Amino acid sequence: MENRQPMDRVARIQDEWRRERPEVDITPQGVIGRLHRLADRLSEELRLVYGRFGLSEGEFDVLCALRRAGEPYERAPGELAAHTMVTTGAMTKRIDHLERAGLVTRRRSDDDQRGRIVALTRPGLELIDRAFTDHMHNERRLLDLLTPIEASALETLLTAWLSHMEHPRPTSDD
Question: Is pLDDT above 50 for 1?
Fold first, then answer.
C-alpha cells in the first residue's frame, strides 16, 4: 500500500499547470516550490527567537559572526560582511543599530588607522550566548519533525545539491 501525503498547495498548483500546460514538464516545481515554502516557514520560526532577544535576523548574524571569531570577539566590517554574506552598506546599518544598543563597539584598527574593528561588548556577548542557545533549541525542535534517518538523508541531499550549485562541474562547452 502506498504511503501518500495529503495534497498540499504545491501539488494543487501542479495539477492546475498539468491541466493548462500539459506539454511543459512541471516536475521541478514539486521540489523547488516546496523548498521555497519550507524556507519561508523556517524563516518565520527562526525570526520568532531573534525577536525575543530584540534582534533582527541580520543583527543575530552579525553577533554570531563576532562570537564565532573567538576572543576578543572582533572582526573588521568587511570581514563581517563576508561572514554574513551581506553588502558592506547593509553591514554598516546593522553595526550602527547594534552599537546604539550597546551590543558592539567600533574602534580604529591597530594595523591600519583608516580601518575599523567591530567588537562584542560584555552585554553583546551575554545576549548572543543566550540567543544562540535558544536558536539551537528551536532548530532542534524544527528538525525533530523529521525522523533521524529523514534528517540525515535530507542533509546529505542538500549538501550535495548546494555543492553542485556553488561548484558547478565544467561542461564540454567550457
Answer: no
Per-residue pLDDT at 173: 66
Determine whether 127 is exposed, middle or buried from the number of CB atoms within 10 Å of its CB (0-12, 13-18, 19+): buried
Between 158 and 168, the higher pLDDT residue: 158
Are the C-beta atoms of 36 and 9 separated by less than 8 Å?
A: no
What pTM was estimated for this model as a whole? 0.85
Burial label, 79 (beta-carbon count in 10 A; 0-12, 13-18, 19+)? middle
Classify domain 32-164 by CATH architecture: Orthogonal Bundle (1.10)
Cβ-contact 76, 109 below 8 angstroms: yes
Amino acid, res. 160: A
d(CA 13, CA 96): 43
Angstrom distance (rounded) from CA 78 to CA 75: 8
pLDDT of 101-135, one tens digit each?
A: 999 999 987 766 557 899 999 999 999 999 999 99
Give the residue from 38, 80, 82, 44 showing the smallest Cα distance to 59.
Answer: 80
Amino acid at 53: F
